[in-house]
């Protein structure tokens, strides 16, 4: 005979039948009827119509029947408030019953009847029960205060129940204490600012005593409450920790985790050199590991918490990596959490193991998990630098599997690796390009496009690749469109001549044919930058009225050609103007690159060593990276980009060096080329800069003459270099202290350092400079003589020289002739020494003087040279070796 | 705290609801159903689901989802532990925890839930106390109740409810006084392709069945207590004594209970009971694959390895498997691709093997995934960690109890990658 029989009477007159049974004289029949009613209620049937009949059964000696009626009352009192009043009398009577079970049951049930009218009657019985002699009744009454507070908070405060509840924290029975704490915590949650649980050392002591004796649930309440306490000093927090630690061995995982919470918090206060601190750390690991062998849902919550713990104190679990290894039949939510923690714990010590696991996971069946595993490999590479190479090769292996989603995911993370470690792993680009066609997810496409744009100079057909993406431009997602736009602009800067058409095409697609404001805006920004239309900078000045650049009408710019960009005369900078007549793109590469990379140019700081320019570059990189850059700690670790092709571009510098037209009488010292005009006034709104480079006493200086050829006074000068081959950067600010009046010139010497960021330039000794004044920012590029970079200690030991000379492969040798030089070998040697080119040895063979020379560049690259001088022949032959 | 509880069956019907505070509409479960639909497997439903006004915390047991509804900040483990306790109690009361059993006993279930939680705070969750408050249904008692009109509900305040030993009821009497302890260890391991252990750990428990009269006070000591450095105790164990002397001292609950569970981590040297030699391979362009598996005992201290069951999820491309077991029987389910081989006992003289071919769809490419082999086994009379009980003593009562200790090792999540 089972309760399922209560469900079988579902026919028409059911309620009527039940009514009759409830009013039966027979006790047994009544009880069965109430059971039927309850059964219907549990499955969500409406039996509220029976309210008066059920309540009539309430006055009984049968405890089970009473409980059943109470169950019914709790469910339906709200819908029948008037009827519910009928029950009040019985409740009040029951609260006086000699049996504590009945008293407790009555006060418990009353609190569950959420009817305002009843709560008024509840207060008196509740007050009595809170002071009942039986702890079972007291602990039930404590919870009842919380219930009542939920229904009518004001009433509870007015009746002073909160104070009574606070007194119960000092009760002699631990269960009463635990319930009082639980009730107070719940009430406090709805009053965030109230000071209900004001904890002091005395109450804490009471709680800790109760902690040892109460049930597991009570322990959770007390521990959670303890976690809110702030100990006065480290001794107090140590003593609390000591008393909480045994809870770590509790069978209930919630108790364990609450104890961990208390310990993690109070540990913050302990001095790290304390022995106890170390002991505590060791004690925390085992219980956390044990949580992971429990049921999956427990594991999930534990893992989420461990994730937080590991972020704060990775040392606790640093040796426990293996417990986070994924079992193939773990539920997916557990797998993903484990993966996350594995990455957090990854370090150089365990990275090999982790990578082997991740690679294993990448061949599993679950697509989500596989994707996350591939991402994890990328995160490992970024987190543990030493592992980057291994990660890249693992990713390449995965790409070879040709599983579509694995390939896409791998490409996304390889992009991140490229960003973190630029110029290190480009050798894999070819493999990536092979998989171009299989990419169908926007993120993977965008990543691939970024790679192509970033490394355009190493990908022969970069323009074709990007062009192929361009065909379906409007079907792509925004992410891909933005990336494509940026990549093509980058490509254009690197290969201006071949890609002009492509860049025009993408700019017009982005600005004219797109409805996406982000894309349009970025398109316009690039377009502006590339067109170098000066007028946009002059809104609100005279120039905007004349629609001519200031140099065109400003006095002092005589002889300047009035050259303007096509379409600029009717362009006031409005978007409409641009779309009507797109300004032609001028491929003057140097200035443009400067423009793009130095968008947010700031004057260098006035004190200290060379300003850290990385911040500025990051801004620029962000622009180019399309804000996709999610990597933190963007480190520029560029291997010194000293190419093996040292010959052609530098020879100019060497020629200069040997251009000894002044004869033998010149004083010793480094050769200084004469000043040339770097920035004509017409290009810089009246500012003319001419200059040269000097090496004096081991310091490279840039000597400049600034001339104001405009009408207004110039102030606020600042200077900034773009990244260059040898890392040249201003070692201090540009010292132009007084304002530069019209037609005034000033000589400035700017000391340079060689510790700036490095990027290979074409030609090698090209330097792109931005100068700012109160009027505008101007860009120019100049070339510095390579001899400036030869350092004073470039004299090599004879033996070393000999050995090295032989060791250098012939491929690294280049030869050229210097013509029309009328010096004998000794004079030449002397002269060269002034420029830090040292003669190591001299040999005379068949009337030919052979000078063996060494020089060292600022980036520690040695150059060895052999200079052959034939007496009477004004032509020298130089062969240089460099390594 | 816990606001409401919904029980949901495998087909997504709510068959029971209980509210401890105000009534929460059933529609809140719609969020749960959405998550259920998204999950590929029933066990992949996330245990914590946020909804605009509530949180749903669920566990899946015996193909029933127990969904608790939470409205305020609550430790989720507290809720999950409580749900586990509900499941255990149902099982304890009805023998099984199934939808049918719950529906058959719906009034008792309702009474139990009411007794276990008050206003969302746990009230009585110890099975000893609950059984004093609400008597478990038995056929005899139902009959007696029907005839005499007495009830299932205890009229007295349970004695354990407020005492310092809340887990034990007073006045227990037995004619045969006996105490049995089972040391059961499960070994979890991941073995890689080449047969080396990636990770191996042991989850051990000591389950007890104590039927002793009065208030006995027991002590249990071990030959090698140092193994137990990561333990969780039943609340009855005196922690101080363990810390100081490594002796388990406790007043036991009446009946079945878990005395302690422990964990032997992968940092200790964990013995691996079996080895597997495998060759599961596919050739490019061929529609057949080779399957070759041999099992052998490894570190078993001379004990027999029994009830061995090997299962493996073969790649999706496999249509069928034609294999030949040297002993036992195997089945292959072509729908789920699950291969199971019931090996039985391993005879060290004649190692069991399973060899043959797998057929693939003609022209299909070689499967990418490598199947993982899952192994279940049992070893009687041995705890693989080497844990041994030294002695069991009883104080506080005069009689001489009968004592027994049993050891057993099982495979937990024992996985071999191929």
UniProtKB/TrEMBL annotation, chain A:
The keyword Protein transport applies. GO terms for cellular component: clathrin adaptor complex; cytoplasmic vesicle; endomembrane system. It is found in: Endomembrane system. One of its GO terms (molecular function) is clathrin binding. One of its GO terms (biological process) is vesicle-mediated transport. It is a peripheral membrane protein. InterPro entries: AP_beta, AP_complex_bsu_1_2_4, ARM-like, ARM-type_fold, Armadillo, B-adaptin_app_sub_C, Clathrin/coatomer_adapt-like_N, Clathrin_a/b/g-adaptin_app_Ig. It holds the Pfam family Alpha_adaptinC2. Its main location: membrane. It comes from the Eukaryota. Residues 790-882 form the Beta-adaptin appendage C-terminal subdomain domain. Residues 561-581 are annotated as: Disordered. Residues 671-781 form the Clathrin adaptor alpha/beta/gamma-adaptin appendage Ig-like subdomain domain. Keywords: Acetylation, Membrane, Protein transport, Transport. Belongs to the adaptor complexes large subunit family. This is AP complex subunit beta. It comes from Scophthalmus maximus. The lineage of its organism: Eukaryota, Metazoa, Chordata, Craniata, Vertebrata. The gene is ap1b1.
TrEMBL record, chain B:
Residues 176-417 form the MHD domain. Keywords: Cytoplasmic vesicle, Golgi apparatus, Membrane, Protein transport, Transport. Transmembrane segments: none annotated. It holds the Pfam family Clat_adaptor_s. SUPFAM superfamilies: Second domain of Mu2 adaptin subunit (ap50) of ap2 adaptor (SSF49447), SNARE-like (SSF64356). It is found in: Golgi apparatus; Cytoplasmic vesicle membrane. The keyword Isomerase does not apply. PROSITE patterns: CLAT_ADAPTOR_M_1, CLAT_ADAPTOR_M_2, MHD. One of its GO terms (cellular component) is cytoplasmic vesicle membrane. It is a peripheral membrane protein. CDD domains: AP3_Mu_N. InterPro entries: Adaptor_comp_med_subunit, AP2_Mu_C_sf, AP_mu_sigma_su, Clathrin_mu, Clathrin_mu_CS, Longin-like_dom_sf, MHD. GO terms for biological process: intracellular protein transport; vesicle-mediated transport. It comes from the Eukaryota. PANTHER family: AP COMPLEX SUBUNIT MU (PTHR10529). Belongs to the adaptor complexes medium subunit family. This is AP-3 complex subunit mu-2. It comes from Scophthalmus maximus (Turbot).
